């Protein structure tokens, strides 16, 4: 640590084709924010850089689908993301975007520098081209049948069914997403970064000089390097992105993986004219916070770009996290299987820190982890409320009750008092060591152990009993409790900033820096505290059930979306169909059939007569809502007795894949008895 004067923290740029969800938060933004707040609390110089990644094919596909421009899409989601981060308390020094003018200039300049130095390879190859759309097709603009699992909607870069990486030319029966036509192969020129040139240097830099990197990061890098690196394209045939700034590159843009990491640099430039001290001074420590899917870009490709440019520092660490699942299933933006940050902020006002706490306590630091709403509730009620909130509330309530809120002077300390106070310093060392090594889950546990220490001390000392026999001893007990409480405002500050603002108000304290953590004289005798409110509140079962129901509804909608229609039955002759006499009728009476869940007894005016029909629709309609409804009824079906009632016909119903039923009805009024043909 001592060789660095400052720390530059970057967090992966969220992709601006949708909002931010809890997977993004747990993997990247919460740990990055904890680290930034911790270093600031230590008085260190910190730059915490963020921004939206706004280029690439998914943006253009979404724009095409919605009938708007790519700029419209990124403006919408950049706004949602930026506002959500601000409300959630992610403490960026700057939050920029890759569609900004300064980013175009910075990315172009770095590309041009590498181009002028001869760092790229020019290659001409055949790529798919849509003749009707008059453009080359990026991988995501091509779909076809996967050659490995026969999934018919695989993309040109990946099959989302079996997960295989593909080349567009591997697809069976490829089609253009733009026109639906079969594309042709056409020659095009692109520029490639020859990663194989950097392989010996990368082996030395990562495998020898950075053995302290997290095992998941180190292991993935080693696997890539052992597999051998190949040249990688840095340009694309697209209209949306940073134009390639050389002659002969018209209609081409920088590949999004090339320009996005440069967004860290352009955002820093936007923030300060002194940006070079953060990016070019070897006394700056650079740390990238990312998810595991970005390891190769931040550990191999981006460092190779910076190495080739020659004047930039390289990352000191890349503490990537694994993935967070949701209720046992992989989070998916396309399937809406997520807890969206902007929705959480609306539905759980004032509970920003609860989500931060749960995501940190359950962080996917070494393996994929699972978020469940039940665990969210349990951690809030059993830890934040019952441990941290309970201790500080009791300490402050008793101080107000016994001493009118004025902190009493401690008398002579007993052995147990000294042990409790000494434990604070030990816990500080443990938390600090964990934070310095990017073990945020472990650090949070250490902070909560300090609250547990206070809870146990208070429960063991029982000042509410001792006050009856030894009021002087209670002064010491309460002084110790309040010293622990003051320490909690420091140790939890990186993790629960909103809650610690509240606790400092209760304690009538200014923010204390990290160097004060462990001291046992943080609040002096005679200092007056305020009357407390609840620091955290219980979350009830009904609140959690509402969130579970919301996810179940999403799952049901996804199943309906994915369900395929049953194949058609065997062909019949027209004469067979002509035997069916289907009429339009109106339901004039309806009632439930006793002792059944599914059956309704209906009286229907068919235009021919008024007849009784028994129908199994009681789970989907109430009798009251269907009286007056026009329906289609098969009137020449032989009568059949159901529960002792003779049913004279059958109502036509449409069935969803989940079994739900809906009437087959005319879209405008038809005279009863009208034939369905």
TrEMBL record:
One GO term (biological process): methionyl-tRNA aminoacylation
Top-level taxon in the UniProt lineage: Bacteria
Any single Pfam family the record assigns to this protein: Anticodon_3
Cofactor note: Binds 1 zinc ion per subunit.
Reaction(s) this enzyme catalyzes, per UniProt: tRNA(Met) + L-methionine + ATP = L-methionyl-tRNA(Met) + AMP + diphosphate
Keyword annotations: Aminoacyl-tRNA synthetase, ATP-binding, Cytoplasm, Ligase, Metal-binding, Nucleotide-binding, Protein biosynthesis, RNA-binding, tRNA-binding, Zinc
Intracellular or extracellular location(s): Cytoplasm
Record: residues binding ATP: 333
Primary residence: cytoplasm
CDD domains, alphabetized: Anticodon_Ia_Met, MetRS_core, tRNA_bind_EcMetRS_like
Cofactor: Zn(2+)
Motif residue range(s): 'HIGH' region: 14-24
Chain span(s) of sequence motif 'KMSKS' region: 330-334
MF term (GO), any: methionine-tRNA ligase activity
Binding site for Zn(2+): 146, 149, 159, 162
InterPro entries: aa-tRNA-synth_I_CS (IPR001412), Anticodon_Met (IPR041872), Met-tRNA-synth_bsu_C (IPR004495), Met-tRNA_ligase_1 (IPR023458), Met-tRNA_synth (IPR014758), Methionyl/Leucyl_tRNA_Synth (IPR015413), MetRS_core (IPR033911), MetRS_Zn (IPR029038)
One of the record's GO cellular component terms: cytosol
Gene3D superfamilies with a match to the protein in the record: HUPs, Isoleucyl-tRNA Synthetase, Domain 1, Methionyl-tRNA synthetase, Zn-domain, Nucleic acid-binding proteins
Entry's EC annotation: 6.1.1.10
Domain TRNA-binding: 576-677
Entry's family note: Belongs to the class-I aminoacyl-tRNA synthetase family. MetG type 1 subfamily.
Subunit structure: Homodimer.
Function: Is required not only for elongation of protein synthesis but also for the initiation of all mRNA translation through initiator tRNA(fMet) aminoacylation.
Descriptive protein name: Methionine--tRNA ligase
UniProt lineage: Bacteria, Pseudomonadati, Bacteroidota, Bacteroidia, Marinilabiliales
Gene name per UniProt: metG
